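so my prof wants the structure for this chain in the tokens format not the other one, which i didnt know existed until like an hour ago. anyway here's the sequence
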Amino acid sequence: MKKFLFIRAMVMLVVVGASWGVIANTTYAASLSMKNAPLKEEYGREKLEAEKEVEAETHVVEIMKKIKPGQRLPSMILKGLNGKAYDVGATRNKALVISFWASWCDPCRLEAPMLNELYSKYKDDVDVYGINVTRYDRLEDVQRFSRSLDLQFPILLDEQGALFERFGGVAFPTHVMVDHHGQVHEIIIGMLSEQELERKIENLEKKEDAFGSRVDPQRHLISSCEQLISD
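here's what i got, hopefully its the right format
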């Protein structure tokens, strides 16, 4: 009898122990599920934010399309070494020569005095901007470069290289010839001789003269009518 009662008691203990094990496992699994839920939500938020960033970057790339000859020079504010702010694409009544350069670029150092001289000669009709792509340079070297060559034309800082990239961003120096309407006339990669630079500037002036000499049809019609009345 005692043996029977002992066996029964053992069976009860096993059953109760198993029940407690099932309950404990169920509780632990439930707690894990609750802990994992915020992690899944956090992962979902991070994934959504990453997708938004990719979309934003794609949008920026689409906006920052390459500029080609025949297109208008975009408006972009750049800081100058003199502390002034310059809008590269601002409306002007003069042609513009842009030279992208870096202080460590030997052809740029050779070409800068030529630009200086041509700027002094043509500054009444043509603006010259020396745009340093500071992303690939150091500001102290840029300042030293400008002082050592006594550059008279404005030195602008393309700090992130954004404008340079829009013109291809291939090599230094890169020149951009812009007519007095703000339209990109030509993009030239590589160093130019003084004669070539001067010829490019003279071509811009000729283009301006050609535009300036066009007859306004409305004005011509009014003049014709006035002539008929006087006759």
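also thought this was worth mentioning. Helices lie at 2-63, 106-122, 139-149, 162-166, 194-212, 217-230.
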